[in-house]
Design a protein that fits this description.
- The protein is α/β, with parallel strands linked by helices.
- It is built from six helices and six strands, in the order H-H-E-H-E-H-E-H-E-E-E-H.
- A hairpin with a 2-residue loop joins strand 5 and strand 6.
């Protein structure tokens, strides 16, 4: 996919360059020079991206530039969160804790070198982690709570405040209807 995106970007740049040199004849290039530039752009981009990936993997193995996290919750939920976080390159999963521990959470986090705990819990269990929240805040350990609203409905989900209380807001998005209208309008105009 990434290679195809690079190819498309280089093709668009080459076409823009060719059309600009057609309009301004003062700067005209041969077709062969344009093809060389096109090929060179693709090769250079692929090589630099491969180099960046190699450097990034080396950093990942050494633990530089990552936030160490511990996942807390049921095995099914932590597996889902682990899959989502594996695609995110800024987190390194240091371990998993099944359920809500009664005690010893800070010791486990410091023993594994974690800077953050991500808890994925059903809504009905959110009140039961108040002692853990207080413990983490006092120790300076960051705690994120992900609710099981992950698959709740379609649309855009955002976090807001309602009377100084956190709230989840489900919406279609600000410009979705406007974008749909513009798409329909352009379809009608282009078909005529």
């Amino acid at each position: 996919k990434e290679t195809w995106d690079i190819f498309k970007a280089a093709a668009i740049g080459t076409l823009l360059n060719a059309s600009m040199t057609f309009v301004w004849r003062k700067y005209s290039y041969s077709r062969m020079a344009t093809l060389y530039a096109f090929a060179l752009a693709i090769i250079t981009l692929l090589l630099t991206r491969a180099l960046v990936k190699l450097i990034w993997k080396a950093w990942q193995k050494s633990g530089i530039g990552f936030t160490g996290v511990i996942l807390m919750g049921s095995p099914e939920d932590t597996t889902l969160l682990r899959q989502k976080l594996s695609a995110n390159s800024e987190y390194m999963i240091m371990g998993t804790i099944n359920g809500i521990p009664e005690e010893g959470l800070l010791e486990k986090a410091s023993a594994r070198g974690a800077e953050e705990i991500i808890a994925i819990l059903p809504v009905e269990k959110l009140k039961s982690i108040n002692p853990i929240i207080e413990e983490c805040v006092m120790a300076g350990l960051r705690l994120r709570v992900v609710s099981d609203f992950i698959g709740a409905g379609a649309g855009k989900v955002s976090i807001g405040k309602f009377e100084d209380m956190p709230s989840l807001e489900f919406s279609y998005g600000l410009l979705d209807r406007w974008n749909r209208f513009l798409k329909r309008l352009s379809d009608v105009i282009l078909s005529v």
